[in-house]
Amino acid sequence: MNKNQLDLLVALQDIDLMLKELDDVKQLGFEVRNEGAEALEKAREELTQKIGKPLLGKYERLRARYKRAIVPVKGDTCLGCFMRLPTYLITHKDKHNQIITCEGCGRILYWLE
Ligand SMILES: [Zn+2]
């Protein structure tokens, strides 16, 4: 696994949240330009092709449970559930390149630094 995959996943989540927003706007009865949604769907498709199947599956499972499947870590705290992460994760030398999940909420972590 490499950082690239994590970056792609963060981008994918962005697109999914934007699609969700479009949907919410539609639910409220506003007109949404179709091209907007189509451009997002297309970008999503291109991204998912670059992400490994197991990782994508993990993301989709998390997304079914949480609004955000990937959450940032600030200092030593998961900003998804505010649990402090164990030291071995904080000091993990390859943490930026590994898919690491929070032991508290199970979400995929990315590191703010
Ligand atoms: Zn967490």
Rg: 16 Å
What characteristic shape results from the CA principal axes?
elongated
Tally of discrete structural domains: 1
Distance between the termini: 20 Å
Small-molecule binders here are: zinc ion
* The CATH architecture: Orthogonal Bundle
Largest sheet: 4 strands, mixed
Number of helices, counting only DSSP H or I runs of 4 residues or more: 4
**Strands, total number:** 4
Strand order of the largest sheet: 2-1-4-3
Structural class: alpha+beta
CATH topology: Helix Hairpins
Order of helices and strands: HHHEEHEE
Helix content: 40-55%
Beta-strand percent range: 5-15%
Summed over residues and divided by their number, the pLDDT gives a mean of 91
Weakly predicted, low-confidence segments: none
**Highest CATH level, the class:** Mainly Alpha
Task: Characterise the protein shown here.
With 113 residues, the protein is α+β, with helices and mostly antiparallel strands. It has a single domain, classed as Helix Hairpins. The protein is 52% helix and 12% strand. It has helices at 3-27, 34-50, 53-65, 87-90, and strands spanning 70-74, 77-78, 100-101, 108-111. The chain has a four-stranded mixed sheet with strand order 2-1-4-3. The relative contact order is 0.17. Residues 78, 80-81, 83, 102, 104-105, 107 line the site of zinc ion (ZN).
